[in-house]
Amino acid sequence: MDEPNINIGVLSAREIKFELYGDFSLTGVSKRQSGIFTAKPGNDKILVLKDGVEIHSANEIILIPEDIEIESFLLRDVIIGKQFHWEKKENQRFRGVLKIIKEKNLLTAINIIPMEEYLVSVISSEMSSNSSLELLKAHAIVSRGWLLAQLEKRSQHKKRKPVNEVITESEIIRWYDREEHVNYDFCADDHCQRYQGVTKIINDNALNAVESTRGLVLVYDNQICDTRYSKCCGGMTESFENVWEPVKHHYLSPVTDYKFELDGVDYDLTIDKLAERWIKTSPHAYCNTTDLKILSQILVDFDRPTNNFFRWKVEYAQKELAEIINEKSRIDFGEIIDLIPIERGYSGRIIKLKIVGEKKELVIGKELEIRKTLSKTHLYSSAFFVEKKNIINRTPQNFILHGAGWGHGVGLCQIGAAVMGEKGYGFDEILIHYFNGAKIQKIYS
């Protein structure tokens, strides 16, 4: 196969302010363009203005750089961390083609760029480009495989709409995979992969990592692996089918995040008592680190306030928890009597949780639905046990959630991989550790 171009939706807004650095050709206009512009809707078309004067209008705007390595463009007020606790706006700079389209009542800015160029930015956006080269190489291969697997899935989904929820009177089981976008391949935020253009590229490490692994992916049974990753598994990775659609992928089955299993530890974390014991302890694991040098590789600026993630604790008063659950679920449970794990995955993450309220009982899942329902933003993970305190007439006045890990826990554990890189493991050893039975293969040059 040839290296594909990727279409990334970066920004949607009523109007888009952008700056062109260098020479760009604007489809339908003979003169090369550079400088400061605004795009806004008008007369059922997109108007492009420079210094307040309209220079072009069309159903879609396409700006093509003369040289992708030299020219770039800047988008103002790009939202990052949408719906997460670090949400904010940034000005971001990009290479490649800028395309602006209409979507409902908004305009959307799309960046079209070759995959390998895109990956340099993804690696630099997901983590510090000062990370160890072996970690960056491993992540380049994981990100490339995930992208190609999603493009293949997208073509399949055009033939059949995927099911992502099962709802009955007693259960709401819902899972959230990558958002399906109609007019582009991926968004630029955490819902797909973090992509912040050349803004975060501060040295050549990411470029070297991508160039040295060009075209490499993980394969299993002659299929490109749908390689997943999260911040911190908490000591044990989770299986794919417990987080997303009920399809088992052998290469995304649970892995103990250490070089061997520990004596005296029962790893059957599907059992509630053993999961609780696991969460109460701080076992040896690659991702069990407080080394700030290593953590700074993964926890970029807006993640860095978060430092208790291998093991964490969240406390709620009754009123606060009831309000959060009622608001997030849009169901009136009344006061919350109990939160009962019904089913746990291999990492101790809760797949099904029963919410017992004074007015209603309901089982919810999967892990992200649980994390969203029990927090104003997201719980770090669904690997937790509940401590109830100050119980009056069966009703706890306080709930303490004791938890482990950050994210869904499937596939590569970013912090664990960073530790492995610092310990001298090669990128291939890191990948083999996290992806059972997968092989590294070059699919384009």
Describe the structure.
By secondary structure, this protein is of the alpha+beta class. The chain has a domain at 5-205. Helix content is 22%, strand content 34%. The strands form 5 sheets. Strands 1, 2, 3, 4, 5, 6, 7, 8, 9, 10 and 13 form an 11-stranded mixed beta sheet that branches. A 5-stranded mixed beta sheet has the order 11-12-20-19-18. α1 packs across α3 (205-212) and α2 (133-157) packs antiparallel against α8 (414-422). The termini are close together.
Biggest sheet record: 11 strands, mixed
**Shape type:** globular
* Structural Rg: 23 Å
**Uncertain regions: pLDDT < 50 for 5+ in a row?**
none
Number of strands: 24
SS strand fraction:
25-35%
Structural class, from secondary structure content? alpha+beta
Cα distance, first to last residue? 9 Å
Q: Tally the helices.
A: 9
Fraction of residues in helix: 10-25%
Mean pLDDT: 91
List keywords for this structure.
445 residues, alpha+beta, 11-stranded mixed sheet, 5-stranded mixed sheet, 9 helices, 24 strands, 34% strand, globular
Secondary structure elements and pairings:
Elements: E1 5-13, E2 16-26, E3 33-42, E4 45-50, E5 53-58, E6 61-65, E7 72-80, E8 88-94, E9 97-103, E10 106-114, H1 115-126, H2 133-157, E11 165-167, E12 171-174, E13 186-187, H3 205-212, E14 216-220, E15 223-224, E16 229-230, H4 272-280, H5 292-298, E17 311-317, H6 318-329, E18 336-344, E19 350-357, E20 361-365, H7 367-373, E21 384-392, E22 395-404, E23 412-413, H8 414-422, H9 427-434, E24 439-442
Parallel strand pairs: 1-13, 12-20, 16-23
Antiparallel strand pairs: 1-10, 2-3, 2-6, 2-7, 3-4, 4-5, 6-9, 7-8, 9-10, 11-12, 14-15, 14-24, 17-22, 18-19, 19-20, 21-22
